[in-house]
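Section handout, structural biology tutorial.
Before the tutorial, make sure you can parse a SMILES string by hand: atoms, branches in parentheses, ring closures as digits. In the record below the ligand is adenosine-5'-triphosphate, and the chain has 359 residues. In the tutorial you will relate the predicted structure tokens back to the input. Do not try to memorize them.
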Amino acid sequence: MFLSEKTPLLAVDIGTHSVKVAQISGSKNKFELMNFSIMPLKEGCIVDGVVQQPDEIVDTLEKMIKVEKIDTKYAVASIAGEAVIIKKIRVPLMTAEELSQNIEKEAEQYIPFDIDDVSIDFQILNTKPGPSEENQKEDTMEILLVAVQRDIIESRIDILYDVGLRPAIIDLDVFAMVNAFELGVDLKTREQEAIAVIDLGESFTHLNIMQDGLTAYTRDIPFGGSHCTSKLMSKFDLPYKEIAKLKFGVIPSEIKSDEVVEVIVKSFDKILSEVQKSFEFFSTTSNSQVDRVLLTGGGALISGVDGLFSHHLETPVEILNPMKGIKVNKRKFDQKMIDSMGPLSTVAIGLAARRFDYQ
Ligand SMILES: Nc1ncnc2c1ncn2[C@@H]1O[C@H](COP(=O)(O)OP(=O)(O)OP(=O)(O)O)[C@@H](O)[C@H]1O
Ligand SMILES: [Mg+2]
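Predicted structure of the complex:
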């Protein structure tokens, strides 16, 4: 399929809490926002990353396309969750073409699903021998193996077709968020550095640790903002809408803000301990430490969450807002609104930039 530079794809991030669509134009370092919109999904549309109510999602997406007057036909979407396997593995040294022919045989032992039910992709990372003894053989190379259950991909593709879009690329949330980060970064400044990008979503905490600009470790931790919401619901007798607002810092006068903060902080215990475990795994396998953390996703909008992570992980933490890396026309968009929602757009913006890989 030929996609010219003038054919911006419509990025569609179907999250558990909301759908985001984005489109950007221009070229590297000079990107401009063409479209961004976000619409909440009803509870139960996506459960644990799996589409459960496709019709609801199709309706939502159709509305967004209509309101935003989007006429682009090609889309880029993404997948997340535990049906996605991303692993660094070693395989015999061969060309990318040879590996394409042999990837199923090489990957089979690493995939906990039937090989016929998964779609496989790979990226050659390193053709040099590895640091550990067992990886010292010179006739091997390191690859990043990606395997996704086919029905998970198909359910997302079906949604796109149902709204009249043609899927050009299906990506992963953990790759898209790094792509969004790179829009605003001078790659030269971060050589050797290990950076963890953490997207605090509704049902997942998406994590990608990059080293030397390459993905070194990824994980979709199956806990997210919904856990915080249910903890707040069991503590405070308020309607769901009011509960959601507590996270935004809108606290009714009869409720003590200290109590709200305590519940929110406590609800992050599990996520923080899983992130910590991932960092430890990364440290032992790579012999290095995570140098800094970038928090993004809806959870990054909770006031003080950066301090909480920084304190627990003993690592500098910043908030990643990909809108800062692209030009936003003040006449077309409300800059304040775009700035305040930036972290919610990370996966969508990262996906929207994908088409430029075709240049
Ligand atoms: N302004 C805000 N302040 C605080 N929390 C917010 C704000 N906006 C959204 N959230 C919270 O962020 C979470 C949703 O984040 P996000 O949109 O990144 O998730 P998602 O992409 O839909 O889910 P997932 O990636 O897990 O499928 C919800 O728990 C929501 O309560
Ligand atoms: Mg998300």
